[in-house]
Amino acid sequence: MRRRPSVDELAEGVRAGSRAALGRAITLIESRRADDQHSARALLERLLPHTGAALRVGITGVPGVGKSTFIETLGRQLTGAGTRVAVLAVDPSSTRSGGSILGDKTRMQELARDPLAFVRPSPSRGSLGGVARRTREVMLLCEAAGYEVVLVETVGVGQSETMVAGMVDFFLVLMLAGAGDELQGIKRGILELADMVAVNKADGDNEQKARRARVEYARALHLMPQKSPHWTVPVHTCSGLEGVGVAELWAQVEGFREALSAAGEWEPRRAEQRVQAMWRSIEWGVVERFREHAGVRGAIGAIEARVRAGSLTPDHGVSELLRVFLG
């Protein structure tokens, strides 16, 4: 049997930029085994001083907006300029097996083969809206491995955006023109999370539609409160397929970092994100402990049946289960 690397060996491998070591470290972080979680905490503590330098960018959009094509084009442009890029593509999970079903490496084949890039699909395992529970920790591992830009692709299902926006520096929302997405995006509140909106697939016959959509989004954003007094959310058109407008878009992302750093907002935002991440972990941890409690496991079936039958209100069911849990 192959010997598992120690925490020290993994840390050294990650710091040396080994993609194999980084992959093993991420597998350790994502494991639910108690002994693995102990090792994962030790590994993160070892690597934490070497994190924080990367630019973290979340990218979302409705299905079919062309996220993967856009990310591959952006990633290839960045690596072409010598920048090391990590892509964390958060997959929806199979409700039966918990496994990834998108297979992002097959959708970003060129970028996955690039020696300056690292592409990692990550199953959500039932986390809210498809955001993997360990995504933040995986970002830290990528930073420790020397990746200068970390791109996090969400599944774009309308629930995960708030969570991913709370763990990245910059949140990019990709939109389509002429498909009713203008109104849908506003209705879902997604524009309130955006640091930039980009109308993708602005090519061929769709170019004029994209330009019109850009004007509509700009008008809508003008009516919304600004997230920062030092940044006005821009709206761009681009084509991930043809690469048009992608470099100009990235220049704005870098301008965002410069603007917020100069205003003294950058580090306080990250500090607040760390506190929020702690509270999310508390929520997840409490729910796990609750579900694993022997008394709760013994009582939950009968209480669920009563709630389902309408003989017990959901709130009263919660009260009964909490009494069991708290002893």
Automatic annotation (TrEMBL):
One of its GO terms (cellular component) is cytoplasm. It comes from the Bacteria. GO terms for molecular function: GTP binding; GTPase activity. CDD domains: MMAA-like. It holds the Pfam family MeaB. InterPro entries: GTPase_ArgK, P-loop_NTPase. Belongs to the SIMIBI class G3E GTPase family. ArgK/MeaB subfamily. PANTHER family: METHYLMALONIC ACIDURIA TYPE A PROTEIN, MITOCHONDRIAL, METHYLMALONYL-COA MUTASE. This is Arginine/ornithine transport system ATPase. It comes from Plesiocystis pacifica SIR-1. The lineage of its organism: Bacteria, Pseudomonadati, Myxococcota, Polyangia, Nannocystales.
